[in-house]
Write a structure and sequence with these properties.
The chain is an alpha+beta fold. The chain has one domain (about 5-74): Roll (SH3 type barrels). The chain is built from one helix and five strands. It has one helix spanning about 55-74; strands spanning about 5-15, 15-20, 25-30, 40-45, 50-55. It has a five-stranded antiparallel β-sheet, with helices on one face. It is elongated, with a radius of gyration of 12 Å.
């Protein structure tokens, strides 16, 4: 099982994107995406790779779930 985190693309360069994950910026590889990513799109990030695109609604629902889950643990 793996855990992918939704992230919003804020900058794109060849083969990489800078994404925002809860206010933290990270650079991730986009080589696994079928289509070229666009700024303001959401991607699912796993170990430094954007592995798929997802809708803003799905991203926000997933982030909400992860926050609620982590609040229960900690």
């Amino acid at each position: 099982m793996c855990l992918g985190i939704p992230a919003k693309i804020i900058k794109i360069s060849e083969g990489f994107a800078t994404v925002d994950i809860g206010g933290i910026e990270r650079e991730v590889s986009t080589i696994l995406l079928e289509d070229e990513p666009l700024i303001d799109e959401y991607v699912l990030v796993h170990v430094g790779f954007a592995i798929s695109k997802l809708s803003e609604v799905d991203a926000e629902e997933t982030l909400k779930f992860l926050k609620e889950f982590s609040d229960e643990i900690y």
